[in-house]
Design goal:
Distance between the termini: 9 Å
Number of helices: 13
Helix content: 25-40%
Order of helices and strands: HEEEHHHHHHEHHEHHEEHEEEH
Structural class: alpha+beta
Largest sheet: 7 strands, antiparallel
Strand content: 5-15%
Strand order of the largest sheet: 2-1-10-9-8-7-6
Radius of gyration: 19 Å
């Protein structure tokens, strides 16, 4: 069965991405696994090949980009379970100057992207000489500029606020909370912010204006997360496919030991956000056509994608978890084909579930 998945990845490499790793679990068992390509293929944006081009392996580490939002959500929900924070209390109760002091902004609205906040804010450009703490303070004061409560407006700014709320409610930095409440509990040794195994990490984009010569490798690709010191609620987590699969399986099976089943059910419940091409739970997209492909007929397939070319799909009805990790932004962003690759992997998962 892995041969078909290997063929899917081989057809995408290096046209769509230089490296790809995929895992498909059916009923909790790995039904197919594949790795293809090179962790570093290019030396720069002109397409010149790197001198050293290490192969992608099953244990290679990728920048998850916005899949980080799921880890932030799980941390916040675990804090809500303990009564440390309420999902419907005003954010200004914790951060007095947040979001223009609008008391309608709640953690729930941050997690559903209905807080009326702008999609992003380039604080690295606004505050070129500031430190991460100064930049965070400015980020948190981003005013509400769109209707609160909807329609849906995807906002990294909102998820940065969500991460900061977790820190205040949890009494620790976000990376420490992710470690103590998620990755440490589940034994995900290769998952976290600011990774320490550079030889196993897939390169991302060529950004000489910010990072020096060569393509970014081992540092978060997202500009805002990088400006905040590499740790933020919307981006910054790195992981292997195996670790991300274990995380996804934890959610599919009800959350234990990191969350209660009722918290996972609320996370995966349609929260009623209008105006998106999918339904939205808490921090997760339900039936997002960009990642679920032929699984869209399922009423409850949910997950998230990442700008770097990553995706996690959890389909409780079909007892499937599907992981695809790539570096589709290497050496430049805007390459075609990642949506088709995600759909092909989802189609293979469906075939395996149906006994094909």
């Amino acid at each position: 069965m892995s041969q078909r998945l290997e063929s899917i990845l081989a057809r995408a490499v290096p046209r769509v991405c230089s490296a790809a790793v995929a895992l498909i679990a059916v009923d909790g068992r790995v039904a197919a696994a594949a790795a293809a390509g090179e962790l570093v293929r290019y030396a720069g944006a002109d397409g010149a090949l790197a001198v050293e081009r290490p192969p992608a392996r099953h244990d290679s580490i990728f920048d998850l980009a916005s899949i980080t939002k799921l880890f932030t959500t799980v941390v916040l929900l675990s804090l809500a379970e303990e009564g440390r924070i309420g999902l419907d209390e005003p954010v200004v109760s914790w951060i007095p100057g947040a979001a223009g002091r609008d008391r309608r902004i709640t953690p729930r609205r941050l997690l559903t992207h209905t807080a009326g906040l702008v999609p992003t804010r380039r604080i690295d450009l606004e505050l070129p000489g500031a430190d991460p703490a100064e930049r965070m303070a400015v980020m948190l004061t981003t005013p509400v500029t769109h209707p609160v409560g909807g329609p849906y407006l995807y906002s990294d700014v909102g998820m940065v606020m969500a991460g900061r709320l977790a820190e205040l409610a949890g009494g620790a930095p976000l990376d420490a909370l992710v470690r103590s409440r998620v990755t440490g509990v589940l034994g995900l040794a290769d998952t976290g912010y600011r990774p320490h195994a550079p030889a196993r990490i897939a390169a991302t984009e060529w950004k000489p204006e910010r990072r020096g010569p060569g393509c970014v490798r081992g540092e978060v690709h997202d500009e805002t997360a990088y400006a905040l010191g590499g740790v933020a609620g919307h981006a910054g987590v790195f992981a292997t496919a195996g670790d991300l699969l274990a995380f996804g399986e934890t959610l599919r099976l009800g959350g234990g030991p990191v969350l209660r089943p009722e918290s996972v059910a609320e996370m995966a419940r349609d929260q009623g956000a209008e105006g998106a091409a999918f339904r939205h739970g808490l921090g997760v997209r339900i039936g997002d056509p960009a990642i679920v492909g032929p699984l869209s007929a399922s009423s409850g397939a949910y997950g998230h994608s990442g700008f770097t070319g990553t995706s996690l799909v959890i389909d409780p009805a079909r007892r499937l978890t599907v992981v695809l990790l790539t570096n589709a932004v290497h050496p430049v962003r805007g390459r075609d084909g990642i949506r088709g690759l995600r759909h092909a992997v989802a189609a293979e998962a469906l075939s395996l579930r149906d006994g094909g």
